[in-house]
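User: Please predict the structure of the protein below. I'd like the answer in structure-token form so I can feed it into my own downstream comparison script.

Assistant: Understood. Taking the following sequence of 298 residues as input:
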Amino acid sequence: MANVHESVLLQETLSELDLAPNDVVLDATGGGGGHSKHIAEVLGEEGALIALDQDEDALPRIENALEGATCTTRVIQGNFRNLDTHVMQAGYTTLNKILFDLGLSTNQLELSGRGFSFQKDEPLLMTMSKEGEKSAYEIVNTYDQGELADLIYEFGEERYSRKIAKAIVENRQSKPIGTSGELKKIIESAVPAAYRNGRIHPATRTFQALRIAANDEMESLKLGLQKAWDMLSENGRIVVISFHSLEDRIVKQFFASLVREGVGELIHKKPLTPTEEEIRRNPKSRSAKMRIIKKLIK
């Protein structure tokens, strides 16, 4: 299976995890397997890597990336909001290092066929798993105008959320909005001409909001971070790579609360960001922020 995803902040991830050969490591967002592959190369025969991803299509890519690894490896389908259950089922009760890469994999954008990208005309699903409980189609075609506007504003930080919600409701009256391409055109028609020609495509924030809502991403992140901390060993580390302000705010606030309690230590006061060279090589990395915390007390 092709893998077109390039791991963001890869060298920084390997450095900041501060890996030891016998560590038990969780990659909570296995994705294309890029981070997992390089983590496994550092771990020795006594080390273990658990790679978790809720998208079943990601599992063969991760397994392929880990082929030949000398450490113990387990590749598991599941949401990191349930990481404690998955890790214990893999036979472990404590983790030494944990990675969350919250970016949407290029494989999901380009290969999933689930409507994540407004650059394609695909069924309007946006579910990370094929068995997702709620799809973007359901949200777009059943939520009332006020609910849609609030959702797009809250999760997309979209200034024209009310105009976009109004256009969605008007257009769905003639027939359901069924594809990402249809939704893109509706959004384009709803916003001012100057906004259509701005730095980012006018559909970017609305698509982000729908994806977050369909997958309950903010609540999953809060649950996942707490469970990761609970399973982390003393002197263990959590590394989180986020790509938009909503995620980063949750991570920042959670880490700050642990520091205030005296149980955690920030490795860097400010988040790490990609180098100019990485951004030139991989423009999708430009918004990435990495935060790292160390556990002081178990």
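That's the full token string. Residues 245-260 form the longest helix (16 residues).
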